Amino acid sequence: GMVEVIPERCVPIAKRELLYLGTVGWACWLSGIIFIDRRRRDAAIGVIASTASTMRRENLRVWVFPEGTRNPGRSMLPFKRGAFHLAVQAQVPIVPIVISPYQDFFSSKEKRFTSGTCTIQVLPRVDTRGLSPEDVPKLTESVRQAMAEALAELSRSDHGDQDTEQPLL
């Protein structure tokens, strides 16, 4: 789903462990993915600060998965705050994107997708201009709440129905 809506000059942030997955790791590294070592908080904070500077200097966008891990359930996990610290440090807007659940056509046991449809909903931008690190907890929770409400609505709707109010991408 990400490929359908990823903007130009955008790179994802991923856990450092992906670097060690053979050819997947090489492909991630060659594509410019920003790696975060989640086990070393100081190193992760350094990467966030460096990325914020690069975002401002090079007009770069960053794609972050704020739950910090895969979630097999139909609800959202608590959000990690790193993405929100990054947005505040760079003074860039947050563009929340919600993808409908895919459990109906993905078998986690077999690690296999079958035919199915996802709905991708892009929520309104959340401005971070003028915010400081002290604002991050409230910012994190307000974005999470908006995304949780959108996910709940997407979960209730029929994903294959092309007559929904939200455009399918």
Automatic annotation (TrEMBL):
Cited InterPro entries: Plipid/glycerol_acylTrfase
Keyword Transferase listed: yes
A single Gene Ontology CC term: endoplasmic reticulum
Gene Ontology molecular function: 1-acylglycerol-3-phosphate O-acyltransferase activity
Family annotation (SMART domains): PlsC
EC number per UniProt: 2.3.1.51
Swiss-Prot/TrEMBL GO biological process terms: phosphatidic acid biosynthetic process
Broad class of enzyme this protein falls into: transferase
Biological or metabolic pathway of the protein: Phospholipid metabolism; CDP-diacylglycerol biosynthesis; CDP-diacylglycerol from sn-glycerol 3-phosphate: step 2/3
Keywords, sorted A to Z: Acyltransferase, Transferase
Coiled coil: none
PANTHER family xrefs: 1-ACYL-SN-GLYCEROL-3-PHOSPHATE ACYLTRANSFERASE, 1-ACYL-SN-GLYCEROL-3-PHOSPHATE ACYLTRANSFERASE ALPHA
Protein name (database record): 1-acylglycerol-3-phosphate O-acyltransferase
Native source organism of the sequence: Cisticola juncidis
Lineage: Eukaryota, Metazoa, Chordata, Craniata, Vertebrata
